[in-house]
Amino acid sequence: MENIKNEVAVSIKGLNKTIGKRHILHDISFDAYSGEVFGFLGPNGAGKTTTIKMIVGLLSIDSGEISVCGAEIKKDFEGALKNIGGIVENPEMYKHLTGYQNLEHYARMREGITKERIDEVVALVGLSNRINEKISKYSLGMRQRLGVAQSILHRPKTLILDEPTNGLDPAGIKELRDILKKLAHEEGVCVIVSSHLMSEMELMCDRVGVIANGSMLGVYSIDELLAASAGATSDYIIDTDGGEKAVEIIKGVTEKVSLTEDGLVEVILDNNTHREDIAKINKLLIEGGAAVYTVSLKPKKKLEDVFIEMTSDTKEGGQIA
Ligand SMILES: Nc1ncnc2c1ncn2[C@@H]1O[C@H](COP(=O)(O)OP(=O)(O)O)[C@@H](O)[C@H]1O
Ligand SMILES: [Mg+2]
């Protein structure tokens, strides 16, 4: 996050929801700031849509608080809602009308949306040269972008999109991602997007809140998650003809060394000293009469794996679709 000064845009405290006999949300709390893309990440059935519906006022709040730009939904519904734009279910659009006519139609239902504002949002979502075509001719990605245009017409300080990239192709995902980042980083909007894919959040978000089985597991910056997945150590695999002798030699540098089933030597080294250590080990092995064929760094865990581990640790077990 670089430019815009950040203040809390959406604040959620101790949110609970029971539908029928099912306690779906357990004490959900998090803050999302203006100027950031906040990812709401969790496996299918985790409670993302339920939470989002409560933020946009489509579902009632059992207990807890949701405030949008300082207005608490329970006390000042109008005040909260005027600062929210969102697409939760498929946005209502008229296929026989053009993109522009759809926006005009929507603008008539709200106050103070000028023709200039319509043109501005059309340009922002990159639809200027297709806006006079009927929506029936639009790709899913274009419809999704028109949906974003529609939800930001009234200049809400918060934009909430529930799994906006579902069904989009990679090019469509990138276009949408660039638009959402621009809105957050350049216009200072608080953008909240949900997803069940860590790989997607990694590219789109500044921070992610992880939810599983209706409980918040934590809120992390992407940098923190990357550091967590990188860990404090590096794993090296050394291919040598030395076998157990090589292991003994390496014990002069570290105790964390072992022989794999394939006869390779695995060494775990502290990230602060791993480069010097590997040079030392290499030298000792050669001096000890062992031929060293390759030294390779074992690939780190992917962020997606970290997320799956994190969410499948919960009692009922997470599920990734
Ligand atoms: N109207 C409802 N009645 C009963 N259970 C529901 C209802 N809506 C959602 N749920 C349940 O709540 C849980 C969370 O659902 P949802 O918020 O849609 O998850 P997500 O969007 O993360 O996939 C799921 O187990 C789902 O089956
Ligand atoms: Mg959902």
Ligands (ions, cofactors included): adenosine-5'-diphosphate, magnesium ion
User: How many H/I helices?
Assistant: 11
The top-level CATH class of the domain at 8-83 and 156-228 is: Alpha Beta
Strand content of the residues, in percent? 25-35%
Which superfamily, in CATH terms, is the homologous superfamily of the domain at 8-83 and 156-228?
P-loop containing nucleotide triphosphate hydrolases
Please summarize the sheet with the most strands: 6 strands, mixed
Could you give the topology of this structure?
Elements: E1 8-19, E2 22-33, E3 37-41, H1 48-55, E4 63-68, E5 71-72, H2 77-81, E6 84-87, H3 99-108, H4 115-124, H5 140-152, E7 158-161, H6 170-187, E8 190-195, H7 198-204, E9 207-212, E10 215-221, H8 222-230, E11 233-240, H9 244-250, E12 257-259, E13 265-270, H10 274-287, E14 292-297, H11 303-312
Parallel strand pairs: 3-8, 3-9, 6-7, 7-8
Antiparallel strand pairs: 1-2, 1-4, 4-5, 9-10, 11-13, 11-14, 12-13
Magnesium ion (MG) is lined by residues 48-49, 162-163.
Write a brief caption for the model.
Helix content is 35%, strand content 27%. It has 321 residues and is α/β, with parallel strands linked by helices.
Describe the structure.
The protein has 321 residues and is of the alpha/beta class. Among the domains are: 8-83 and 156-228, Rossmann fold (3-Layer(aba) Sandwich), CATH 3.40.50.300; 233-297, 2-Layer Sandwich (Alpha-Beta Plaits), CATH 3.30.70. It has 11 helices and 14 strands. The strands form 3 sheets. Strands 6-7-8-3-9-10 form a 6-stranded mixed β-sheet, with helices on both faces. Strand 1 (8-19) and strand 2 form a beta hairpin. The longest helix is centred in the middle third of the chain and has 18 residues, at 170-187. The protein starts with 7 loop residues before the first strand and ends in a 9-residue tail after the last helix. Residues 315-321 have low confidence and may be disordered. Bound molecules: adenosine-5'-diphosphate (ADP) and magnesium ion (MG).
